Amino acid sequence: MAAKTGRRTRRRQIRLSIMMVVLGLVAVAGAWQWRATPPPPTSTSSRDRTPAPRRETRLTLEPALFTGKAAEAYRVAREMPEVLDQLQCYCACGSEYGHVSLLSCYVDGHGST
Asked: How far, in Å, CA of 5 to CA of 14, rounded?
């Protein structure tokens, strides 16, 4: 009787081992397939993107009103208002002057200071 019980236990261990190996192989195959799946295509074309609405609508001051690096900064702000309008100014001018973005600093003389 003990020999039959020992055989059954041994068979159960073998079956359990085989099931564990098969389960491990399925898990590895699933992980491999998941990793091999390419990500969905993303559009990098600028014509496919809708521009963010402008928060600051006032025009920047003329760069000719300033000299040196201040004039250069006002020139860049005039050339790329959509970029500066997406950036937050960190000099607390939002609470003190009511500015809504970095572009707001260039619609008055604040950007030259």
From this structure: 14
Residue spans of the domains in the chain: they are 1-37, 57-112
What is this structure's pTM? 0.53
C-beta separation of 105 from 99 below 8 A = yes
What gap in Å lies between CA 81 and CA 58, rounded to an integer? 10
Helix, coil or strand: residue 92: coil
d(CA 25, CA 76): 59
Contact 104, 92 (CB under 8 A): no
On whether the CB atoms of residues 104 and 89 are closer than 8 A, the answer is yes
Place of tokens 């699933």: 30
pLDDT confidence of residue 3: 66
